[in-house]
Amino acid sequence: MTTQAPHGSRHEARPPGATAALALPGAATLLGLMNYTAPIATLTDTADGLHAGTTARIWVMSSISLGLAAALLVVGALADDHGRRRVFALGGALLALSSIGCALAPNSAAFVAGRIVQGVATAALLATGLGIIGHTFTGHARARAAGIWGAMLGLGIALGPIAAAWLTQLVDWRLWYWVTVVASLALTAASRALPESRAELRRGLDIPGLITMVGGVSALLSAVTLGRTGWTRPTVLALLAAAIVLLIAFVAVEARRTSPMLDLGLFRRPAFLLSIGGALVTGLAVIGLMSNLVTIMVSALRLSPLAASFVLGIWSGLSYVAALQARRLPARWPSGVLLGAGLALSAVGELAMLGLSPGTSWTRLIPGLVIAGVGSGLANAMLARLAVDSVPPQRAGMGSGANNTARYTGAALGVAMVFAINTSSGTTPHAVTHGLNLSLIVSAILCAAGALAAIPLSRRAANSATPTTSTSITSTSAGTTPAPAAR
């Protein structure tokens, strides 16, 4: 085991493989988020090329979220048990294969299947990447590394729509997926430079938890996706009922297992609640809103997809810069307080964008995008830090998986919520901008509520912190004992 300086020291010994342990997870997150957001700017071309109808278009946009949210917690647990580097490499290879499927898809059904598998592959890269960072670094080095990882979220969202729109103009919408194939293969090859890490004590595959969690999340997000065409349809209601039953069953299963996929005892920890709650609010009230903004700028403000992607890049680009600079903030400032500040800034930025109409210039959005971008970057950096600091080091994959599951489940729900509000009064430019103004108010309220909730949780986290919090955390599950340190 690598000898490291005490937690909190500014001069931790640089562990072996530190460069690869930061660069490759960062690159994987960048690629994953670029691919996640690519259809935002190419939806019309992609749907036309696949002869996709209205319902199929919804799945083209949302299918990757289904794979992501369903697989994140599972691959995080598998990585802890079987090796984070191994699962990272498998994720890169699977992303390459699924991207080939998307590039060659003859119809919307084949494309949607490919995007779901892309979501599973991206889940493997995100959960293991942050888990590798959490295992490799400690103290201030971990905070800096988590900040850089969080910055890649914003940069990926900034570059994805721009790159996809540009490649579509240059050749065809399918070209983006061939680029993803090449990048994924490069990541897979480079993964050999990563240090391997896993939990000393394997928990084994939680089959009942796996079935109920994947089934419940899949049913929920399928219902949310189909709900955009009518929430009272029997199929939607049946999926919602199945989701409720399966997710309740998942909680019951995990509460009784001595080695659960998700340790429910972690929810007693204020830092873990901050990690999960903040990620959920970010997905619901920030990613959900911004994912619809390009489409609205194209349909109501008459911008081209490429121009609208550059406007969105104001928000996501500043998110990248803010997350990158967040590592310079004093370590004594609590992560929960900074998370709350990020959500509060997001709320202010969303309110600053109010007042759009079909005749409004896109420049009207700039002040709000700037403020919200800084807030998003700060929140992303703190969420990455909380994801690895709020769990035992031997369960870094579990912490990352739970954090990102909350983020992308929230994002899928947020996209559906904003879509429903935006189209509630019709699809004319005036109706859509009116709906966007309502969405901005709702999203701002949710961000503000998240910011307020972070204050007492941050105080509780500070009061319950101990000097050994980041290196040895006793499991709170019934029947379990402290696991040995990760190797």
Descriptive overview:
The structure is a single chain. The protein is mainly α. The protein has helices at 18-50, 54-82, 84-104, 108-136, 139-170, 175-190, 207-226, 234-256, 270-300, 305-325, 335-352, 366-389, 396-422, 429-464. The protein has two domains: 20-194 and 259-464, Growth Hormone, Chain: A (Up-down Bundle), CATH 1.20.1250.20; 205-258. The protein has 14 helices and no strands. α1 runs antiparallel to α2, α7 packs antiparallel against α8 (234-256) and α9 (270-300) runs parallel beside α13 (396-422).
Short description:
This protein is an all-alpha fold and 487 residues long. It has helices spanning 18-50, 54-82, 84-104, 108-136, 139-170, 175-190, 207-226, 234-256, 270-300, 305-325, 335-352, 366-389, 396-422, 429-464.
What's the topology here?
Layout: H1 18-50, H2 54-82, H3 84-104, H4 108-136, H5 139-170, H6 175-190, H7 207-226, H8 234-256, H9 270-300, H10 305-325, H11 335-352, H12 366-389, H13 396-422, H14 429-464
- Enumerate how many helices there are, as a single number: 14
Radius of gyration: 21 Å
Q: What general form does the structure show? A: globular
Write down the domain tally.
2
What's the architecture of the largest domain, going by CATH?
A: Up-down Bundle
Q: What is the top-level CATH class of the largest domain?
A: Mainly Alpha
CATH overall fold name of the largest domain? Growth Hormone, Chain: A
**Which superfamily, in CATH terms, is the homologous superfamily of the largest domain?**
MFS general substrate transporter like domains
What's the oligomerization state?
Answer: single chain
Distance between the termini: 6 Å
| Proportion of residues in helical segments | over 70%
SS content category: mainly alpha
Strand tally:
0
Order of helices and strands: HHHHHHHHHHHHHH
Low-confidence stretches: 1-11, 466-487
